[in-house]
């Protein structure tokens, strides 16, 4: 790559100014060198002829030569700087045109808009890269929004259809408005309101608008609380839960939201582990993080589905998972909550029937003792 291609904007401007100064200096030197000796010669001859003092002739010759050299040098520098300015302006205008076009294309809703590096310095190349990244992000947000609306419409269709069918049947006298009909209709209404609450929550969490009541908490308390809350239901399903956690795992977090993530992971473990299975919950301290893993010995997740379980509305087995009331948003909410805390939530599974492990990692809050190294484990 040529030096000019790698030079930053400041270097390029310096080169341009140096060029103008150089042209002016060269013009001054050229004029001085070509006109000066002639002028001196002529004045000295005149001094001999007229008998005037050679000193005053030499001074006049010097004044005339330097005035001429300076004027021509200034004029040349002016012309050179005008030329260089026009060239620079044209080059910058040409480089900015793709940005204007790209911004217009983004504004009219086009996706996958990219701007290639204009090649007039790393500053402009960085702006081009940032613009392309922004356009890609916008396209992604727009895609997600479109898919979300489509998924939402799809999710609402079934409960609404069931409600409409029952209302019509009751209206026509085909069905009686007895307890069982009421129960079915109520279940559909509950499903719709849960869907609405979940969508509102995941949207605000992913937009970073989730209200978090953060303060230093011990993860041990939250882990044991969530396990205690779920243990009866796990036992009813024939599952055994083991909890390994000890006090002293401090994080700056909203205990309700972290509790919600853990409850969701435990509910999923219950729903996807056959009776007789085991659910292990373990909280461990790492250098900069506290990690909580929820492992089950259940049905596992196929490798191709692993990256998708955190997608909104994704369910491995749509019919079966929908039957147990899931809308496929639980893990999206859980991950959004983890991210809002500056943490991560990842899933691992060796494959179908091999169980699953979900790991929640949160930035660890160091105590004074940790910092001084006294209590470092
Ligand atoms: P839902 O709210 O419907 O349970 P989630 O977002 O919590 O949805 O989970 C998405 C999908 O990921 C589930 O439908 C299920 O197919 C899969 N999944 C979640 N947890 C587990 C698990 N522990 N074992 C196997 N599959 C799981």
From TrEMBL:
Annotated Gene Ontology cellular component terms: plasma membrane
A single MF term (Gene Ontology): phosphoprotein phosphatase activity
SMART domains xrefs: HAMP, HATPase_c, HisKA
The protein's enzyme class: transferase
Catalytic activity: ATP + protein L-histidine = ADP + protein N-phospho-L-histidine
SUPFAM superfamilies, per the entry: ATPase domain of HSP90 chaperone/DNA topoisomerase II/histidine kinase (SSF55874), Homodimeric domain of signal transducing histidine kinase (SSF47384)
Spans traversing the lipid bilayer: 12-31, 61-89
InterPro entries hit by this protein: BphY/WalK/GraS-like (IPR050351), HAMP_dom (IPR003660), HATPase_C_sf (IPR036890), HATPase_dom (IPR003594), His_kinase_dom (IPR005467), HisK_dim/P_dom (IPR003661), HisK_dim/P_sf (IPR036097), Sig_transdc_His_kin-like_C (IPR004358)
Protein name: Sensor-like histidine kinase SenX3
Species in which this protein is naturally found: Demequina lutea
């Amino acid at each position: 790559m040529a030096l000019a291609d790698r030079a930053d904007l400041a270097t390029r401007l310096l080169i341009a100014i140096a060029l103008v100064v150089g042209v002016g200096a060269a013009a001054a030197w050229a004029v001085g060198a070509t006109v000066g000796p002639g002028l001196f010669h002529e004045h000295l001859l005149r001094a001999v002829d007229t008998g005037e003092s050679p000193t005053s002739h030499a001074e006049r010759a010097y004044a005339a030569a330097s005035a001429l050299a300076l004027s021509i040098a200034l004029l040349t520098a002016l012309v050179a700087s005008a030329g260089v300015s026009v060239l620079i302006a044209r080059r910058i205008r040409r480089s900015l045109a793709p940005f204007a076009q790209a911004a217009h294309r983004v504004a009219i809703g086009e996706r996958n808009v990219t701007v290639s590096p204009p090649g007039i310095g790393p500053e402009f190349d960085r702006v081009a890269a940032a613009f392309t990244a922004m356009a890609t992000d916008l396209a992604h947000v727009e895609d997600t929004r479109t898919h979300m609306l489509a998924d939402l419409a799809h999710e609402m269709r079934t409960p609404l259809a069931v409600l409409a069918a029952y209302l019509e049947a009751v209206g026509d006298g085909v069905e009686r408005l007895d307890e069982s009909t009421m129960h079915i209709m109520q279940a559909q209404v509950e499903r719709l309101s849960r869907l609405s609450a979940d969508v509102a929550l995941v949207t605000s969490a992913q937009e970073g608008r989730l209200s978090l009541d953060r303060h230093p908490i011990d993860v041990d308390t939250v882990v044991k609380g969530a396990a205690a809350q779920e243990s009866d239901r796990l036992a009813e399903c024939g599952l055994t839960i083991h909890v390994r956690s000890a006090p002293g795992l401090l994080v700056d977090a909203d205990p309700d939201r972290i509790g919600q993530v853990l409850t969701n992971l435990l509910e999923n473990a219950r729903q996807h582990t056959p009776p007789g299975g085991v659910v292990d919950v373990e909280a461990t301290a790492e250098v900069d993080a506290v990690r909580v893993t929820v492992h089950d010995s259940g049905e596992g997740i196929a490798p191709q589905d692993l990256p998708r379980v955190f997608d909104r509305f994704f369910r491995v087995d749509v019919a079966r998972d929908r039957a147990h009331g899931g809308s496929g948003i639980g893990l999206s909410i859980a991950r959004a909550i983890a991210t809002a805390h500056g943490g991560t939530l990842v899933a691992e599974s060796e494959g179908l029937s091999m169980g699953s492990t979900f790991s929640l990692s949160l930035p660890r809050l160091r105590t004074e003792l940790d910092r001084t190294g006294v209590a470092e484990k």
